[in-house]
Specification:
This protein has 163 residues and is α+β, with helices and mostly antiparallel strands. It has one domain: Gcn5-related N-acetyltransferase (GNAT) (Aminopeptidase). It contains 5 helices and 5 strands, in the order βααβββαβαα. It has a 5-stranded mixed sheet with strand order 1-2-3-4-5. Helix 1 crosses helix 2. It is globular.
């Protein structure tokens, strides 16, 4: 079993992070959907008020996976939480507990920050779903994800300026 180290990303990691994001997009059958750039990641992840954080998994100093996450807040719990936006492990390292180590590190961060929960969304066909169940994560069948983006987002936002 290879030795895996988990560390927080630094600005010098943004090209690697973008490569992992593109690898995840290809895995999710959307290889051309990534619009993020190195500059976007630098601006939003490493500025004065970062909008996300990243953990990097390494084997012998070589990046083999990542987890990108950001804070949430539960009004019912009255406590913060963590949302895992993306987790990705390169194909040749899958099955070597890299994902579990990333998830354990993220769970430790969640607990250390006094957060009530760790959340993520998974595509219905994703073969990693049993992995998440094995970790003890529950599938929220009663919750349906919704998204507002693109023209619909801009159209609704324009209504804020109407009298």
């Amino acid at each position: 079993m290879p030795t895996i180290a988990i560390r927080s990303a630094i600005p010098a990691d943004v090209e690697t992070i973008l490569t992992f994001i593109k690898g995840l997009a290809a895995f999710e059958r959307e290889p051309d959907a990534v619009k993020a750039t190195v500059d976007d990641l630098l601006r939003d992840g490493f500025g004065e008020h970062p909008k996300f954080e990243v953990l990097i998994a390494e084997q012998d100093g070589q990046p083999v996976g990542f987890a990108l996450f950001f804070p949430t807040y539960s009004t019912w719990e009255g406590r913060p939480g963590v949302h895992l936006e993306d987790i990705f492990v390169i194909e040749q390292m899958r099955g070597h507990r890299v994902g579990r180590k990333l998830m354990a590190a993220l769970a430790a961060i969640t607990v250390a920050r006094g957060c009530a929960r760790l959340e993520l969304a998974v595509l219905h066909w994703n073969p990693a779903r049993p992995f998440y169940h094995h970790l003890g994560m529950g599938h929220l069948e009663e919750w349906l994800p919704y998204r507002l983006s693109g023209e619909a987002l801009h159209s609704l936002a324009a209504e804020a300026n109407e009298s």
